[in-house]
Design goal:
about 525 residues, alpha/beta, Beta-Lactamase, 5 domains, 5-stranded parallel β-sheet, 17 strands, binds adenosine-5'-diphosphate, binds magnesium ion
Length: about 525
């Protein structure tokens, strides 16, 4: 609001009309709105209605005098400070003037008054009034501002409280959600930890796993999780499979993968596994859930079946061939004998020929027997005879390696009869002799000894070959354990099971570099045995 252009109200009070007109004439100004009252009572009414910058009032008035009117005006809170200029006649006593001041006059104008002086005085009071107004306005503005500030402050405080409440609420929500997450994570962890399958968790592009479950630890033959979690997964993958695994991952970056590979356990053992890797999100990080399944046994039994199948096929073939050879051999032998009787010279040659033909016959017969071991057929067998036949069968092969086979049967003993399946037992000794021959790369002698010990017969196959290192001794006889390039690792396992089916035992003693002794004990034949075997 522009104060300087404000029109201010001035109240003129006099009981005489002409005096009022005179005052009006003096004070005429566009800045003033002059209001006239003809009595004290009328003046009071105006004062109640309007706000005045200055009141100019006659002292002597009929009815309520100027002083009385002033007194009443002063009593009113709102008008306590309105300046009042009394207009009075010259003959005013000092006492009168004193009374005037005491009721609140600010100034006196003596009649007849100088218009200029009146104008100046009024002007002065008006400016005072306007200043006062200005200050009040400013105070109001300040008060308003203060109030606004206070309101803003309050709003801020309210806002803050609201925010705080919101934050609290949100925190609570998060806590609940977090708890749920934690619970589901706990469940997931338990599930993963106790899974019968090996599970490894790793960040997608990292090679070191951050988690491996108990089954995984066991599978890799580790003692603690840390032994695995510290290492790159590729440390466990067979070097020959690295390329394949990496290729699978580069070909299928984001999807599930399934492949087979070989792992190397912490003990150095190689196992065949099937690996399934499934991508998943763990706390916002893309990870891989890797399932590892041990396929070693499955693979081995597959291979075993494959081997047995091969053996059966070879066996059948051998049987067929042996049969085909035996027929012409019979006629060869017959004709040789016939010729021998007819000619007089070179009898020695004929004998050699017949012996050799008989030898071929024995070998072929053995082959035939071995090739069709269909049904288990336990019989009384002289173990000495079996060994003799086997030696005949194996000698040729032994000679190829520069190995000879000696049998040290104590001739003084009665023939050692056991109860068993001839072909199976033959297979045992063939396997043992094969191993012994293969162990003696530089040639040498294999000794076979037979001895009766109580109610048992002990057969030993003793070679002077390469022997078996102590640390491998415990693995010998496990299926597929072989140290040979073309070995099957089945020979000794088959021996074990055959000896066992004869209620016998088998033991291997070996010294690396010195040689090996395989001892087999079988119970001697007793009358009641036939029933037992059934
Ligand atoms: P394969 O002969 O096919 O390897 P075997 O079960 O007959 O399978 O034998 C298993 C392993 O035992 C052989 O690879 C070899 O390391 C060891 N072995 C068996 N017999 C002997 C032996 N007489 N001398 C030294 N090592 C032997
Ligand atoms: Mg063998």
């Amino acid at each position: 609001m522009e104060m300087d252009n404000q029109i201010v109200k001035i109240l003129l009070v006099d009981d005489r009309e002409e005096n009022l007109l005179a005052l009006e004439a003096v004070l005429t100004s566009p800045k003033y709105q002059l209001i006239k009252a003809l009595s004290g009572e009328e003046a009071l009414r105006w004062v109640l209605r309007e706000e005045f910058a200055v009141i100019i009032m006659d002292v002597q008035m009929p009815g309520m005098s100027g002083f009385e009117t002033a007194k009443l005006i002063r009593q009113r809170e709102k008008t306590r400070d309105v300046p009042i200029i009394f207009v009075t006649a010259l003959n005013q006593t000092d006492e009168n003037v004193m009374q005037g001041y005491s009721v609140g006059a600010i100034d006196f104008i003596i009649k007849p008054f100088n218009p200029n002086i009146l104008n100046w005085k009024v002007n002065g009071f008006v400016s005072l009034y306007l200043n006062q107004k200005k200050i009040e306005e400013q105070a109001k503005v300040i008060a308003k501002r203060t109030e606004e500030l206070e309101q803003a402050n309050q709003a801020l405080r309210d806002n803050e409280e609201m925010l705080e409440a919101l934050v609290k609420e949100r925190t609570n929500e998060l806590l609940v959600a977090n708890k749920k997450l934690l619970e589901s994570e706990k469940k997931y962890r338990k599930l993963v930890e106790e899974s019968p399958e090996a599970i490894i968790l790793t960040e997608k592009h990292k090679e070191k796993p951050f988690f491996v479950n108990q089954t995984g630890v066991k599978l890799l033959k580790a003692q603690t999780k840390e032994q695995i979690e510290r290492q790159s997964l590729f440390d466990f993958i067979h070097p020959e499979d690295h390329k394949k695994v990496r290729k699978i991952f580069t070909l299928n970056r984001s999807g599930r993968n399934m492949y087979e590979c070989r792992l190397i356990c912490l003990t150095g053992e190689v196992i065949h596994v099937e690996v399934k890797s499934i991508p998943f999100d763990y706390q916002g990080v893309s990870c891989l859930h890797i399932l590892v399944r041990d396929m070693t046994e499955l693979k081995q039994s597959r291979e075993f079946m494959h081997q047995t199948e091969k053996l059966t096929v070879v066996g059948e073939l051998a049987a067929g061939i042996a049969h085909e050879i035996r027929n012409p051999l019979t006629s060869l032998k017959g004709f040789t004998q016939l010729l021998g009787d007819k000619i007089d010279s070179n009898h020695d040659y004929m004998e050699i020929m017949i012996t050799e033909i008989e030898r071929i016959n024995t070998i072929v017969s053995e082959l035939l027997l071995l090739a069709k071991p269909r049904k288990l057929d336990f019989k009384r067998i002289d173990i000495g005879v079996i060994l003799k036949n086997i030696i005949t069968l194996m000698e040729a092969q032994a000679n190829l390696y520069g190995v000879t086979i000696q049998c040290s049967k104590n001739q003084g003993l009665p023939s050692l009869i056991i109860h068993g399946e001839e072909n199976k037992l033959k297979q045992v000794f063939i396997n043992l002799l094969k191993n012994a021959i293969e162990a003696m790369q530089d040639g040498g002698e294999i000794i076979i000894s037979i001895e009766q010990i109580g109610s048992e017969v002990e057969i030993k196959v003793i070679d002077g070959g390469c022997g078996i290192p102590t640390e491998l001794l415990s693995k010998i006889g496990q299926p597929f354990f072989t140290t040979k390039d073309k070995g099957t690792g089945l020979g000794l396992m088959v021996c074990h099971s055959i000896v066992e089916s004869h209620q016998g035992t088998m033991q291997i003693d070996s010294i690396k570099g010195k040689g090996t002794t395989v001892s087999i004990r079988l119970p001697l034949y007793q009358e009641n045995m036939e029933y037992k075997a059934l």
